[in-house]
């Protein structure tokens, strides 16, 4: 069944040879949603972690929104964005934002004050302190948040694609149930699991490269 889903030929199901088409669309949705969540989560996480007045302003609201289950946002998302890309990307970005934000806040707020004072005594300004002290100290927590957010992105991809989109792995799951092609459900779930694992390994590789390049640049300066 998996071979037919990938390469086609046997025509065992209506999805014969259509895996790459659906996979490409799903990967693009995850990339966009996760990218938006990462950008917002990292920015707001560092601001909240280092600036108490900002944390007092935005953190209570974020904590309240976080308690609303993702399925609860589905009706509003459908009203705001309609069936299609907008709803799926919104649900992915919303769900992935919270673990990224929380972990970045934890990492940024846990930087030892002795490190900050040492940097200030050496004449470092705010930007230099961020580059040489705050960011390296918070980076491990940030990576944890990104990995959690990426995993959540794949889970919420399925929720978003169950709303009636024409292409995507979640759409295949829903259509398989509706058309009685039950054997395609575990096949699609396996594809999602494998892609989640591959994307997680890729994220770790990219983070290691960024941190290595960053360290070389920081030491070079």
TrEMBL record:
It is found in: Cell membrane. The chain crosses the membrane at residues 23-49, 129-148, 154-173, 185-206. Keywords: Cell membrane, Membrane, Transmembrane, Transmembrane helix, Transport. It comes from the Bacteria. Residues 23-203 form the ABC transmembrane type-1 domain. It holds the Pfam family BPD_transp_1. The keyword Membrane applies. The keyword S-adenosyl-L-methionine does not apply. It is a multi-pass membrane protein. One of its GO terms (cellular component) is plasma membrane. InterPro entries: MetI-like (IPR000515), MetI-like_sf (IPR035906). One of its GO terms (biological process) is alkanesulfonate transmembrane transport. PANTHER family: ABC TRANSPORTER PERMEASE PROTEIN MJ0413-RELATED, ALKANE SULFONATE ABC TRANSPORTER-RELATED, MEMBRANE SUBUNIT. Belongs to the binding-protein-dependent transport system permease family. This is Nitrate/sulfonate/bicarbonate ABC transport system permease protein SsuC. It comes from Acetobacterium woodii (strain ATCC 29683 / DSM 1030 / JCM 2381 / KCTC 1655 / WB1).
């Amino acid at each position: 069944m998996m071979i037919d889903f990938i390469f086609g030929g046997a025509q065992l199901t209506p999805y014969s040879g259509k895996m790459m088409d659906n996979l490409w669309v799903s990967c693009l949705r995850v990339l966009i949603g996760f990218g938006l969540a990462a950008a917002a989560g990292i920015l707001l996480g560092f601001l909240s972690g280092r600036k108490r007045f900002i944390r007092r302003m935005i953190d209570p609201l974020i904590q309240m929104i976080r308690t609303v289950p993702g399925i609860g946002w589905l009706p509003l998302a459908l009203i705001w964005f309609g069936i299609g890309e907008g709803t799926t990307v919104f649900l992915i970005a919303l769900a992935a934002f919270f673990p990224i934000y929380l972990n970045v806040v934890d990492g940024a707020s846990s930087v030892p004050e002795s490190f900050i004072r040492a940097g200030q005594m050496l004449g470092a300004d705010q930007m230099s302190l961020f580059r040489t002290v705050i960011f390296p100290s918070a980076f491990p927590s940030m990576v944890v948040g990104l990995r959690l957010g990426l995993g959540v992105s794949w889970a919420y991809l399925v929720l978003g694609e169950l709303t009636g989109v024409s292409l995507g792995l979640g759409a295949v799951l829903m259509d398989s149930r509706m058309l009685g092609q039950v054997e395609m459900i575990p096949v699609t779930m396996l594809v999602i699991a494998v892609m989640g694992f591959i994307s997680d390994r890729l994220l770790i590789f990219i983070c290691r490269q960024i941190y290595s390049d960053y360290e070389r640049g920081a030491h070079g300066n």
